[in-house]
Amino acid sequence: MILCALLIGKSKVYSQTSTSQGGDLTFTINEGASIVLHASTDHAAAYQWYRDGVKIPGAINKDYTAAAAGMYSVVAFNTQGCPSDISEPVKVVINQQTTPVTPADTVVDLAVTIASSNVHASPGDSFTYILTANNKSPITGTGVQVKYVLPDNLVYLPAPGDDAVKYDIATRTLIWSIGQITQNDPTKLVITVKVLTPGMVQSIVKIKGEQIDPVLANNVDQSVQQVYPLVITNVFTPNGDGVNDTFVIPGLETYSDTELTVINRWGNVVYQKTNYKNDWDGSGLVEGTYFYVLRAKNKAGVWDTYKGYLTLLRTRI
Question: Is 2-95 a domain of CATH 2.60.40.10?
Answer without folding.
Answer: yes
